[in-house]
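Example record used in the benchmark description.
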Amino acid sequence: MPNLSQRLYDLEITARAALAGSRNRRLVRPGELPGGTDLFLCLVDHYEPQIGRPARQRARERVEDWLERYPRIAGCHRDADGRVPAHSFFYPWDEYDPWELERLVELCRAGYGELDLHLHHADDTEESLRRTFAEAVSVYDAAGALPHWPDGRPAFGFIHGNWALDNSRIEHGRNFCGVNRELDLLREAGCYADFTFPAWQHRAQPRWPNRIYYGLDGPEPKSYERGVEAQAGSPAPENGLLLVHGPLAPFARKGRPAMDDGDLAHYRRYRPSRLDRWVRTGVHVLGRPDWVFIKLHTHGAADENRQALLGEDLEALFTDAARRYNDGKRYRLHYVTAREMFNLVKAAEAGLALSPAEARNYVLPSPFTG
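Model output (C-alpha cells):
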C-alpha cells in the first residue's frame, strides 16, 4: 500500500491532470476545429524480451512471436497517409543480446517500426553513465538502428527503466539512477527526446502532466519539474531536453475516481472509451491544437502483455481508430514512431506549413531509408 505522502501526491496529480485536461479541451476541441484535427498515434514499447530472466531460448521465442504476428496485424491497417502502424521498440541496453537486436532491426527495416534506447541503471556517476550511453549508441548505430543528426551524430529516443529519470527514485536505500544531471548527459549523447512519462503512481511523475516541453537540468534530482513548453513559432531552449508526455486522463470507474495513463497491458485492456479519453486529453504543442499527440506505452515482450496485444488489443485499437477517427474531415489518423513525433514537434515549433506526411522526417530522417 502506498504511504500517506504518496497518496496525497497522487491526489494532487489527479487534480492537476483534470485541470490540464480541461485546459486542453477548451483550446483543442478535437473534431471541432476548422480544417479538422490530425491525430498522431504512437505506441512506445519498453521492449524487454529478457524480463523475468528466462532461458535464452524463451527470450528469443518472445521476439520471434513479434516477428511473426505483428506484420500480419499491422499489414491490415493504413492511416490517412497510407502508412501501416509502426511500433517504437525501446530496447534495453542493460539486457543487450546481439541476436535480439539484429532481429528487431530486420523487423523495423521491413517498415514495421523503429528502435530506440531503454535503460535500467542504478548508483551511477556522471562518468559511468556517460560511458554507458556512448557504448549503447555505438552498438545500436553499428547495427543500423539509429537516425542521424544533420551534423552526422547518431540520435536516439530514450525511456528510463524503473521510472527513475534524472535520479527521481530512491527507495528503501536503493538508488534507481544516481545521476542528477541525466538530462544534460542524454543531450550530450545525442538523445532527441525522452518518452518516459507518464509514470503514474511513481515518484518520477512530473507535477505538470499532459505536456510537450523541454526539461531544464540542474544540480537537483528530478529537475525536469522545471521547463519550457514547446510552442509553435518559438525556438526551443538550447539547454533543454524535449519530453513528450502520454495522456494522463482522470475518469470515473464504478463511481470512483480513476486514472488512465495510456498503458496497454493484460491488466489494462483496450476499450473504445480509452481512445476517446486519449483524444480528449489533447496533448499538443502550444499554438497547434489541430495536431494532437497520443503517445501510449506498453511492456510488449512480457508474456501476458504480448498475448493481449498480439491476440486482440492491437487489432482492436487500429480498427477502432480508423473507423472513428479517420474520416478525413473532422479527424485524420497518422501512425507515427517516436522519432516522427519529435520531427512533428520541431516542424510545429518552426511554424512551417507542412503536412504531417512532409513533417515526419523534418529534422531526423529514418535510418531505414535512403
